[in-house]
Amino acid sequence: MPNLFKTIAFALISSGFYSASILTLSKPAFAGEPIIDKNCRYHERTQEVFQKIPPQNQAIISQTSHFQVNNEKYALQLLKFPNSTGVLCLWHPNAPRPQRALLNDERNWFNLEGIFNSFNCQFMPHLCNVPQRLKNVSILQDKEIEKIEKDASQPATYIVTVRGEKTEDILRTAYRLNLINPNQPKVIPLIRVYKK
To the nearest 10°, the Cα dihedral for 75, 148, 41, 187? Predict the structure, then answer.
């Protein structure tokens, strides 16, 4: 009789663990890096965000470059999308950090206060403030940006190489991006290479 009770108890416990594991595994898990959209906004990985922002509109961080203007630190970041286009984002890591950052939409706030205490803003600036899409540089945005290099001859200035579109006669163009005033960047075409 005691063996019968042990067998029944074991069967009940096993079925409980089996049911719990089925329930756990049947729910989708979203972990890892946040999803970044074309406006340089970070979104928490959820099924709702995957539906709103399909994979072709999700960026990966391709390059980050830090610079300083008037003793203020900034970061210029290049995001790349699956279709090879790029978007330039600007961060001001020393800006007053928000108490809360908007990650999904107006109704869903994610409190970052606990995260600030455990991460260093130097290594994860996207947790310190809200990055913004670099404004007034539409000639560079949503184009196939091949590379960004600091211009050694001028502070807070970059050389940005953009590949020409398939329908254009231009193979690639190099631009000087001046960020001396990060809120009003200036873009000057330097060199155009034409197709044969």
Answer: 90
Quote the distance between the C-alpha of residue 130 and its chain's center: 11
- Judged by average pLDDT, the poorest of 22-36, 42-56, 126-140, 150-164 is 22-36
| Cα 158 from Cα 176, distance rounded (Å) | 6
Q: What is the CA radius of gyration of the chain?
A: 24
pLDDT at 110 over 50: no
124-140 burial, b if ≥16 CB within 10 A, otherwise e? ebbbbbbbebbeebeeb
The stretches of 27-112 forming alpha helices (DSSP H) are: 47-52
* Contact status, residue 73 vs residue 94, Cβ threshold 8 Å: yes
Token match 């042990």: residue? 6
The residue assigned the tokens 């630190």 is 73
Q: What is the pLDDT of residues 138-189, one digit of tens each?
A: 999 999 999 999 999 999 999 999 999 888 889 999 999 999 999 899 999 9
Identify which of 148, 121, 126 has the alpha carbon closest to the alpha carbon of residue 137.
148
| Mode of pairing for the β-strands spanning 186-194 and 42-43 | unpaired
Separation of alpha carbons 114 and 136, rounded Å: 35
